[in-house]
Amino acid sequence: MPLPLILLPALAVLALLGLNLLIRKGLAAPRVMETAEPDGLPWEAVAIPGTGGKSLFGWFIPAGPRAPAVAVLHGWGGNAQMMLPLARPLHEAGFALLLFDARCHGRSDGDSFASLPRFAEDLASAVGWLQGRPEVDAHRIGVIGHSVGAGAALLMAAHNATVAGVVSLAAFAHPATMMRRWLRSMHIPHFPLGAYILWYVQRTIGRRFDDIAPGHTIGLIRCPVLLVHGTDDQVVPADDARAIHAHRRDDRTRLLLLPCGHDDSGELDGAMGEIVDFLNQALAPVSLYPDVVPATGHPDVPALPEREFTPNEQ
Length: 314
Hints:
The protein is built from 10 helices and 8 strands. By secondary structure, the protein is an alpha/beta fold. α3 (116-131) crosses α4 (148-158). The protein starts with 7 loop residues before the first helix and ends in a 32-residue tail after the last helix.
């Protein structure tokens, strides 16, 4: 017996609600808990007050009185532990560090959903927390982000003038392009389902992809930026980094290409010298007397070249 016509709209609504629930579940980040700690470093576990009363888990690694500091943010489905390969070389270079979990990740509180803008909110909370620490020079704070965390770092820095420098690791140029790649990998056609998914995600996060895209926010950032990307990245092609770089505000945004993949934070050893040099310059003390080099400055650090380069070049 055919269904009464009056029930068809209700069934359509139920089907749409079910589809929306499937989209949320399908795009939700996996939660991976830390199984290691920053052994050999003077760390302490901290709780960072976040947006909406949420608490963010982190490791704070101090580096002496009034030290420059760097907040380090993982990518989608990651956690603070995955960024540990950066900790020792940065700490040995004199930087205090805050490695933390975004909402819905690691040991931080959950929320209704995670998104690039919420990553940026959490990073802003981490920077604000660092600014309140007596061991940290509040005027010398930089950020490092990986993948979605890199996009969040660029978004946050575009609207936060207190950030002194940004290191972006493997950022994608545009969220819609990144999602289309994922949809193709899942064999989901763009019309009609893929297009609906893109629309639903924008509606859920409350921000237009064009407004939060690193290819757009890079043009709003006033502090120095180092874009680091792997030439063997199979998740986000290196052309995304070139596209972000092409839309930079000025030449204080530099591009560093490395022979590594998307999640190879442990393969950055060959580039840590360039990253440390960049942060030394971006977070250098500001002197009221330009002709006098501060005792804690880095006068011998050469400027990074104004071009695309790899660390293996001679």
